[in-house]
Model the fold of this input.
Amino acid sequence: MNRLAREQSPYLLQHRRNPVDWYPWGEEAFEKARTEDKPIFLSIGYSTCHWCHVMERESFENPEVARLLNQHFVSVKVDREERPDVDKIYMTAVQNLTAQGGWPLTALLTTDLKVFFGGTYFPPTGIQGRPGLLTLLPQIIDNWHHQRAKLVDYAEDFYRRLREHISPPPQDGTPLNAGTLDRAALVLRRDYDPVDGGFGRAPKFPRPSQPAFLLQHGVRHGNEETIQMVVHTCDRMSRGGIYDQIGGGFARYSVDSRWLVPHFEKMLYDNAQLIHLYLDALLVSDRESFERIVRETLAYLARDLTHPDGGFYSAEDADSEGKEGKFYCWTLKELRELLPADECDVFVRRFGVTERGNFLDHSDPDPLKNQNVLSVVDDRLTEAEKTLLSQALPRVSAARSERVRPHRDDKILVSWNGLTLGAVARAYAVLGDADYLAMAQKNFDFLWNTFWDPESRSLCHRWRDGERDTVQLFQGYACFLYGTVELYEATLAPRYLQAALEVAESTIERFLDRKQGGFWQNGTDCPNLILRLKEDYDGAEPSGNSLAMLALQKLAFISGRKEYADIVQLCLKAFAEKLDQYPQAVPLMLQALDYSLHEPLRIVIHGPADSPEGESLIRAAHSVYRPDKVLLRAEEPGDEVFASLCDDQACRATTSDPAQIRAFLQIDPPAK
Done:
């Protein structure tokens, strides 16, 4: 084994038996590079990444590739989920070099960690115009020894240009107003797929923050066309193979435009955000199928991604037994052997199963044949057929549970857990299921007791097998803050508000740029990073800046701390140009802007909030789609339970009637 055997990251541990002499990211590797005057071969991925597995199998287990790397390079492995800060720097660099990005990420660095070459997946020998490592590495070695000055100059020049690109000087005078949101909605709507739903072309990612912003804008302006874009998207995704029709939960993305064939890895952060989106769509459309999707996804998290102490694991792999999708796919022959004929006929028609199948793994030299990804293709079932289907589904589920499961990445990240904490808490608030409340509370207790250090008022990023890391990442603070505020609004329990305020203060102290606005990705005490960044891209994962702004705005109204709202305004100003010129990059930040432009409605609960009467009032407040609202608990003691309904600077009425709360929160249609 190589030295990665000493690490906790499941991704690094997957590479511990490679013949490559891997180092983890750290000073030991960098000192070796400086001392031996060798370039650094940096490889970044994650444990459930299909193409990372392919590159490992083809290249990093190849003896000749390993010989070249071990003799002429210092090879460094990074888990992009443990170190998103490192990944962001080098992903941005490679994207600027090649106009492409993704994982596995490959970058060649000078001894001072600056990039001079990069790409993504490299096989050992060239295929389809993609260079192979056995050709590429000798060329780099030759350049390193015979054209060093030219190479170093290029790396320095590229670093300088990259720094200017990432951290441009602030632009004054960009106004942010309702017109910014209207223009953003027009831009985002252009990418809508009217046939299959979603936004953009294949490969198609859910990216929940984009439909979530459009739904918010559509409801506010009474634009039924925009609303239906989101409802249609949610419907099509839930019918596709990207959604696990047997076990619940969503895969990371679909390789086609129809949501049919996914890369089968399931990520915690996707499912957390999609719970929020489907709750939104449920409240707007009242579709029972959306509630089912929420409940099935939560059941998946509880069953397959929950640590006994309450934390949520990170992901599940696309592959099992070395084959992508083997756990999830079915042949017609398998189903005929498993199910009675009448059940099989209905199941096959419902999910579009054919003899030939609809999935073939082209990355596999010996792929499985006749595989079917299950997707809903036929709704026309009689009551008798629905009964047969309800009998078939448990049989298929039970048979699947006997298969070899995909690898599970069992590290626990405070960032993704914070997102999931908020989603589970909100599911309780909307659906009223006490199991979801227990799930959220147990998760919060685990995170608070395991990740938060009360003495240093700091939050670690990763925990696994009883071991915490020491990395301080803004993304983790922002996600946990966001989730804790959601839990407070779902329960109005004072301890969650107190925790949120403690985390908010520490976040501001450690990461805020008080001069120009925005939060840095790292504090000032993070060595071996060539750039200090402010993440603003709401991609597959939402940016910490967007989440922090939303959470701080709510806390400003809940706690009366106006300075939080002032910080948000400073941050919005820092990202004003991005919000105005590139709204497709920041859909969640657009929601934060919307919140800042409209005084939220406030529901103030008096008396015991955890009483049946208090819980019914809280549930009523969460039963209406109204993103620009805030729930808080009155400070004065009392036994009588009622709610004050407030807008602007005044409370307009008090009530103990849940129906009156719902009526108060309804959005009035805009004037014609």
Remarks:
- The chain has a mean pLDDT of 95.
- Residues 3-166 form a domain with the Glutaredoxin fold (CATH 3.40.30.10).
- The longest helix spans residues 148-166.
- The chain has 25 helices and 21 strands.
